[in-house]
Amino acid sequence: MGIVSQDALNQLQALIDQVEEPLQKTFQNVHQGYVPETLIRFLKAREWNASKAHKMLIESLNWRVQNEIDKILSKPIIPQDLYRGVRDSQLIGLSGYSREGLPVFAIGVGLSTFDKASVHYYVQSHIQINEYRDRVILPSASKKHGRPITTCVKVLDMTGLKLSALNQIKLLTIISSIDDLNYPEKTNTYYIVNAPYIFAGCWKVVKPLLQERTRKKVQVLQGCGRDELLKIMDYAALPHFCRKEGSGSSKHSGSGSENCYSLDHPFHQELYNYIKEQSRMNESKEPIKQGSFHVEFPEPATKEEADIAKTIESELHKFENSRENVDC
Predict the structure, then answer these.
(1) Which of 48, 261, 263, 296 could form a disulfide bond with 87, CB atoms 3.0-4.6 angstroms apart?
(2) Torsion angle, CA of 174/176/182/186, rounded to 10 degrees?
(3) Model confidence pLDDT, tens digit, residues 138-181
(4) What angle do CA 44, 190, 211 make, to 5 degrees?
(5) From its phi and psi, is residue 58 left (phi > 0), alpha (psi between -120 and 50) or beta?
(6) Domain 73-278 adopts which CATH fold?
């Protein structure tokens, strides 16, 4: 867990011990038996200030209660064709595990279009994957390895990143804010691969805006990143777009069992079946209703995040203008 301020941890533990229901109940779904590790995540997010970490955690627990996040894994996106559309346009999947046992999540930043459903469905899908990761995948990995595994690795594929990304900034900012406020410090390292010229320009100006602890987590790899990623994971755990140099990240590349974005991939089949089973168990209390699971959208978590979104938008506009001038 790195350097831990025991005093700050003790202070936060004492404050959280005073929390009553229903916040204690939802906190159990957050910590999954790993209380110190959870408190440390919130302390890291608030620079080891116990008072600020306590405020952040209480606000997150209230958000969970008010938005019934504990029930979200029993709320399937139906019909299945709609869910398939979400999966085809919100590219994310679990490709395997690192040698240290950390789940490896692949995210198709460049080719995600978010154009098959409303914003609420994409937010619902994102939170469901977060909750499934935290309540099922990470506890299972911890049990397998006999030690707490509370973070994951993310491989961000920039293949296909275009100026149309401007249309996605609002949604991506919402998702990022939800993660920053309610799932802090869940990612150990971000590996960026297949980065085109447009990304390089944005990264150059965004990087200085990031806090040092965030910058240290981001590694921009050459090409598809295969050689570097093989230092921390076996070939079988590589996302499909990292397995062959120059193969790109076609959302349709490889078979369903190889393409971790696909609904036919084992991860998404297990997730979908899990949610259906939870829904059946809950059906006697609350009949299944078609429609998205509405979650209150937070404002950007910090001024830093808002500034980054504005900077990215500005850089993309500059790039677009420079292209128009060249075309002329």
Answers:
(1) 263
(2) 160
(3) 999 999 999 999 999 999 999 988 766 666 778 888 898 899 99
(4) 45
(5) alpha
(6) Phosphatidylinositol Transfer Protein Sec14p (3.40.525)
The mean per-residue pLDDT over the stretch 192-215 comes to: 83
Task: Evaluate whether 277 touches 111 at the Cβ level (below 8 Å).
Answer: no
Half-sphere exposure at residue 311, Cβ-oriented, CA atoms within 13 angstroms = 17
pTM over 0.85: yes
Give me the residue spans of the domains in the chain. 6-66, 73-278
Given a cut of 60, is residue 86 above it in pLDDT? yes
Q: Is 6-66 in CATH node 1.10.8?
A: yes
Averaged confidence pLDDT in the chain:
87
Q: How does 209-248 read in b/e, with b if 16+ C-beta sit within 10 Å?
A: eeeeeeeebbebbeebbbeebeebbeeebbbbbbbeeebe
